[in-house]
Amino acid sequence: xxxxxxxxxxxxxxxxxxxxxxxxxxxxxxxxxxxxxxxxxxxxxxxxxxxxxxxxxxxxxxxxxxxxxxxxxxxxxxxxxxxxxxxxxxxxxxxxxxxxxxxxxxxxxxxxxxxxxxxxxxxxxxxxxxxxxxxxxxxxxxxxxxx
Length: 147
Prior knowledge:
The model has no long low-confidence stretch (mean pLDDT 93). 29% of the residues lie in helices and 23% in strands. It has helices at residues 18-27, 34-42, 94-108, 123-131, and strands spanning 9-12, 48-54, 60-69, 77-85, 113-116. The protein contains 4 helices and 5 strands; from the N terminus they run βααβββαβα. The protein has a single domain (9-116), classed as Aminopeptidase (3-Layer(aba) Sandwich). The N and C termini lie far apart (45 Å). The protein is globular, with a radius of gyration of 15 Å. By secondary structure, the chain is an alpha+beta fold.
């Protein structure tokens, strides 16, 4: 477990970060415009957190988004909804530190566990999460229905 590079800081996302966040979502396979990201960002309800990793030049290198996931059948659980680090910055422990910061937020907010979902095709991501202490708990199928 190494330290985060001195020139990288983890901080709460701000509205001026949404362009970079939108671009990172595109890298993850979820393209969106800056305007779409801005609308979604400002509309996030309570018990959501978005953290960014930025370098000394204030360039957003990655981000993580987590929120309350409190279904009736589980104890207070936070869900890591999104984690992405710019492709050219991966392997530098930025994702690790973003997850640690999300875990600290969740613990501080009184959650008892941190859960995430990862697409079955993201095998490298699965290995990454397992190295961070996550364990596989189930496989599922996701269904969507337009409204």
